Amino acid sequence: QVTDTRAREGPISPSYDWFQTDSLITIIIYTKQKDMNLDSVIVDYQDDSFRAETIIQDYSYLIHMELFREIQEDFSVRVVANVGKIEIVLKKKEHTSWKCLGRALENHNSFTPRKDTALYYRKCQLISKEDVTHDTKLFCLMLPPSSYLQVPIGQHVYLKLTIAGTEIVKPYTPVSHSLLFKLMEPVLPNDKYIYFLIKIYPAGLFTPELDHLQIGDFVSVSSPEGNFKISQFQELEDLFLLAAGTGFTPMVKILNYALTNIPSLRKVKLMFFNKTEDDIIWRSQLENLAFKDKRCEVEFVLSAPTSGWNGKQGHISPALLSEFLKRSSDKSKVLICICGPTPFTEQGIRLLHDLNFSKDEIHSFTA
Ligand code: FAD
Ligand code: NAD
Prior knowledge:
Elements: E1 15-20, E2 24-30, E3 41-46, E4 49-56, E5 59-67, E6 71-80, E7 85-92, E8 102-104, E9 110-113, E10 121-131, E11 136-142, E12 147-148, E13 157-163, E14 166-172, E15 174-175, E16 193-199, H1 207-212, E17 218-222, E18 238-244, H2 249-261, E19 267-274, H3 283-292, E20 296-302, E21 312-313, H4 318-324, E22 334-339, H5 342-354, E23 362-364
Flavin-adenine dinucleotide binds next to strand 14 and strand 16.
């Protein structure tokens, strides 16, 4: 007898079950994985379609149904992490018994590599818009009440607007609403509001339109994407962040998370490259953070400073990096995150390899 010993690729497919009381429907997803978080689940109920997407490694498990009867807008999501169980509790609109959960829609009960799944969008409302620098603004968007979504650290979403009859889509990286979180308190998940720091380019295609939106207007927001993994922080001792311009955005949640959730962390250093002082996003918040937390250091480097600037100058270079990237001890576990304009990131990666940092020690944020 010939046995096929080839391992099936990817994780085991989840399954689901459901039960009901007079007023509630509970859907249970058995992920068969232990490391599930609240940001592994995305739930949307819109236009009569109910979708619950569970992200397991690079795969997506989808429940997609037209429900048997209507439900109320708000629902709750709970993860029982140690057994990998996800519970979604829906509230029935009418207290009647359901004969079935509903009718299967496209790709219901499928388990697919994420790269093969289309992005799903929900309409979010613009809640506020605040100036941060002369050209960069902090936008706050609110998810609809019938959506549940948390963007994981290091991931981005796509924003979609219809401009002159054409749908335009661009990627943006959500940030925390500020850097002035209370140190040593875990960052609380805020699942209703999503914040973005966005630079408006007057000659750009998308950002001027975004800037013209009124409070209360809608923007479509996709499900998250990106390959940063929180496991890269395990046992981390030295974290170096190299950011240029709005390439600072992924560093915001990373800073917040690292300073509150990594017990092994000794040092976090940010080197922030900008053209002029006026371009530095959240400068005083960064200086405040470095003042309050001794593990944290911030260095600004300007490529087009005015004559009064007595800090570091120039573009990313071997001299700047070799001085900046000092390990706290010879064998300390290091992670270097880099993000900015493509030539900046590409050059930075080359320089980091020249300085003998390994691939595993570098995470670059790109499209
Ligand atoms: P574009 O139309 O793309 O133009 C940008 C600039 O280039 C303008 O000054 C324009 O005049 C100039 N330009 C355009 N075409 C040409 C050309 N052919 N020749 C010369 N110049 C040209 N940005 C943020 O602000 N915040 C974020 O959090 C953020 N996150 C991102 C995450 C990812 C993964 C990626 C890939 C990008 C991210 N960006 C972010 C950048 C963002 O996606 C857009 O590229 C940016 O907002 C510009 O979009 P736009 O359509 O307004 O400008
Ligand atoms: P900018 O033009 O204001 O430049 C900021 C700094 O980047 C400059 O001071 C310089 O030090 C450096 N820089 C610029 N061009 C360079 C070059 N050719 N070579 C070496 N260094 C260079 O930057 P911006 O307008 O804020 O643009 C930020 C960029 O970051 C955008 O291209 C955006 O798409 C990208 N971004 C990417 C992600 C991601 O991939 N996840 C997230 C956010 C932003």
